[in-house]
Amino acid sequence: MMGPAHSLSGAAAWLGVGAAMEAAGRPMPWPVLVVGALISAGAALAPDLDHKAATISRAFGPISKVLCEIVDKLSYAVYKATRSTSDPRRSGGHRTLTHTWVWAVLIGAGASALAVTGGRWAVLGILFVHLVLAVEGLLWRAARVSSDILVWLLGAAGAWILAGVLDQPGNGADWLFTAPGQEYLWLGLPIVLGALVHDIGDSLTVSGCPILWPLPIAGKRWYPLGPPKALRFRAGSWVELKVLMPVFTLLGGVGGAAALNLF
Do the beta carbons of residue 9 and residue 3 sit within 8 Å? Predict the structure, then answer.
C-alpha cells in the first residue's frame, strides 16, 4: 500500500486497541490514546525504510535517504543469507527483513528500552520521529507542498507538548507498566502495532508480504503471505484510495469514540 493508507491503518488500529481496552474495563487515558494513534500512524511507514522511493525516504532529508540505502542493503544481505532454494533471486531488499514480525518486535522493544533508559530526551526523540512520519502520512497533501523544516518544527512542537501532557499525573506516562522506572515502557507497543499493520496491508497487494519469516511455508523462508491472488490489489489502485482509506477513517473514528466512551 501507499504511505497515506498505511498511516491511516496504523492510527485506526491503535484506536481499535483503545476501544478494546475500554470494553475490557481498562480504559486508556486520553493522552495515551492520542499519542499512541500518532505513533502507530508514523510507525506504519517505517517498514518501507528498505525502499528508496518511499514516503519515509523523504521525511528527514538526506539522513533518511542514506538510512534507506543502508537498510535496503542490510535487508538484501539478510535475504541472501537466509533464503531457501525455493525462494526467488532478488536484486534488492524491499519487502524482506523490515516487513517481518521479527523486525516489528525488535524495533518496538528497542524503542521501549530507549525510552526507559534514555529519559525525557529519548522520549522526545521517539515522539519527534513518529510525529514527523505521522504528518507525512496523514497530512500527505499538505506535507508535499510545504517545506521539510516546517514539518520538522511541527513534529518538534507536537513532541514537546505531548510529552508535557503525558508527564502530568494520571495522564499515562506509567500506563500498563506502573513499577518505578518503567515510565514510557509502553511506547514500543504502538510501534510494533504500526509495523505489523503495515505488513498486513502489504500482504493484501499483488506481491504479498513475508510477515512470518523465518518460519518456513511451502518450502520458502520468505513466503509472500496474502489472500488468494484474485482478492489482491495493486498499491495505489482505486481499491486502496476509494475503498480502504475511507474504511480506515471510519473504523478509526468509531474506535476513538468507543475508546473515549462517547457512545
Answer: no
Q: pLDDT tens digits for 42-59?
A: 999 999 999 888 889 889
pTM of the model: 0.95
Cα-Cα-Cα-Cα dihedral sign, residues 20, 2, 50, 88: positive
Q: In this structure, how many other beta carbons lie within 10 angstroms of the beta carbon of residue 250?
A: 11
What pLDDT is attached to residue 241? Answer: 87
Question: Closest Cα partner for 89 from 177, 187, 220?
Answer: 220
Is the Cβ–Cβ distance between 205 and 53 less than 8 Å?
A: no
Largest Cα span, the chain: 56
Per-residue pLDDT tens over the stretch 201-233: 999 999 999 999 999 999 999 999 999 988 899
- Strand spans (E) along 57-212: none
